Amino acid sequence: MPLSITRRIHFCAGHRLLGHEGKCAQFHGHSFVAEFTVAPAEPDTLDDLGRIVDFSVLKQLFKGWIDEHWDHGFLLWSEDTAAVEALRSVEPHKLYVMDANPTSENMAAHLFHEICPPLLDPLGLRIVRVTIRESDDTSATVE
Ligand SMILES: [Zn+2]
């Protein structure tokens, strides 16, 4: 059976969804949870202690990236020019511009396809699944 491990990272961030038909078109924020599931690039490869990798390594990688780029920042779509300009007019600002609306789905896909591979490749690991939780009741997953 394939082995994998999961690390959960909590962070706070703001966003808005351009073109949303309801309240998510407003600037607002969430206490997000990102869950990263990782497997060895070579199936079922464990180290001498029986680990895929120590959980602290995943914390360092993923929390490091999230803290630097998303935590207490604001995520916006590049096409949302008015919002991007508004954020840039405020100092200090922490803005992460995406090439798609910052939905949970697009955030998970961005982490899965763009961010995780270069973080994990050097360690002989691959990303299996990324889940973004906006609340206890809502999440999006990319596998
Ligand atoms: Zn939201």
Overview in brief:
The chain is of the alpha/beta class. The protein has helices spanning 55-69, 81-88, 104-120, and strands at 5-15, 28-40, 73-77, 95-98, 125-135, 138-142. It has a single domain (5-20, 27-142), classed as Tetrahydropterin Synthase, Chain A (2-Layer Sandwich), CATH 3.30.479.
Q: Extract low-pLDDT stretches.
A: none
Report the mean per-residue pLDDT as an integer.
96
Which ligands are bound?
zinc ion
Give the amount of beta strand, in percent.
25-35%
Looking at CATH, which topology would you report? Tetrahydropterin Synthase, Chain A
CATH superfamily: 6-pyruvoyl tetrahydropterin synthase/QueD
Overall geometry comes to elongated
Total number of beta strands: 6
What order do the SSEs take from the amino end to the carboxyl end, as H and E?
EEHEHEHEE
CATH architecture descriptor text:
2-Layer Sandwich
Structural class: alpha/beta
